Amino acid sequence: MIDTDPTLAHAHAQAAVKRAGRIAVVRETAAITAYATGDFALALRELRTYRRISGKDDQIALMVDSERGVGRPDRALEAGRAVDRSALPAGVRVELAIAMSGARLDLGEPERALSELDIPELDPDRAFEWSPALFAARATVLEELGRVEEAHEWQRRAIIAADALDAAAGYAESEELFVEDIEPEETVPAEEPTSPADTGNPASDPESGADRLDGPR
Predict the structure, then answer these.
(1) What backbone torsions phi and psi does residue 212 show, to the nearest 5 degrees?
(2) What angle is formed at CA 119 by the lines to CA 114 and CA 125, rounded to 5 degrees?
(3) Rounded to an integer, what distance in angstroms lies between the CA atom of residue 106 and that of residue 113?
(4) DSSP state of 192
(5) Hey, which bits of 34-132 come out as E strands?
(6) Residue 204: its pLDDT value, please?
(7) In what order do the strands lie in the sheet with 177-180?
(8) Which residues make Cβ contacts (< 8 Å) with residue 185, sequence separation at least 6?
(9) Ranges of the chain with pLDDT below 70
(10) E-assigned strands of 2-135?
């Protein structure tokens, strides 16, 4: 229900807390639903409880954003710096970088906000599950810096990455998807079918004129 009725979703989560408050996933759910309703102070309390019970830092980005939500960008940066990023999964590292960048913007530090996004996962030629959000975040910071053309380019890359991921939804999450910009191809006559071996791209549609999605590597 969190996407359609976050308040009701949070009510369910609170009911679960009353019945099983010592279970990590219950407190995690309470935190996420509290965040969705805009109750950032409660989200922080629940996130701290979740981390204490689970021993995990996988919701650190949400903690950073919740600190921002209560108007403490300095505390947000402190929380983000306190974790070992090398020990985090790639997706969590990206979420944390985006949250840290937002905290820098809150402090009026756009140049430092941009540097927070200069991470190894920022690869414009490959689409991962985190790529659209990361590219869009970079576009936002570049626009704040007045670098409008670069901002538009990264926003375009975010759209391409999102479309590529949608088109390749059947692939395993761990696989890399290489995305290339190409010119629209001519329609192949029905009597001369083109095999995947000819195109080197079993996932593309030659009639679409869209950005080509290479297979997993």
Answers:
(1) -75, 140
(2) 100
(3) 9
(4) S
(5) 126-127
(6) 39
(7) 126-127, 177-180, 212-213
(8) 206, 207, 209
(9) 170-217
(10) 126-127
